[in-house]
Specification:
single chain; 114 residues; mainly beta; 4-stranded antiparallel β-sheet; 10 strands; 0% helix; 50% strand
């Protein structure tokens, strides 16, 4: 059974940073592309970044380009999202997704104050 457990969210001031983590289990983590999505209050779920099994990354949200970095540790079955220069508009629940787009973690709240 796929399990995805996010951590690392919290309250941070604008300009600050956070590192989100996702512990994955129940599937062959090193074989699959993994993704980070986010959902802002009153908004739709947005694909932020993805990373292939071989750590090729793709950015989907122009608003985070140059500020967020996705990475993974296949030995530890861990997915990460380093978020720098945070802005109030980054406030959202962030979700770890994989191995399919049907498999979601419970999410971790990120709140950026101005």
């Amino acid at each position: 059974q796929v399990q995805l457990v996010e951590s690392g969210g919290g309250l941070v001031q604008a300009g600050g940073f956070l590192r989100l983590s996702c512990a994955a289990s129940g599937f062959l983590f090193d074989k699959y592309t993994m993704r980070w999505y986010r959902e802002a209050p009153g908004g739709e779920r947005e694909l932020v970044e993805s990373i292939s099994s071989r750590s090729v990354t793709t950015n989907y949200a122009d608003s985070v380009k140059g500020r967020f970095t996705i990475s993974r540790d296949n030995d530890k079955n861990m997915l990460y999202l380093q978020m720098n220069s945070l802005k109030p508009e980054d406030t959202a629940v962030y979700y770890c997704v994989g191995p399919s787009v049907m498999d979601w973690g419970q999410g971790t709240q990120v709140t950026v104050s101005s």
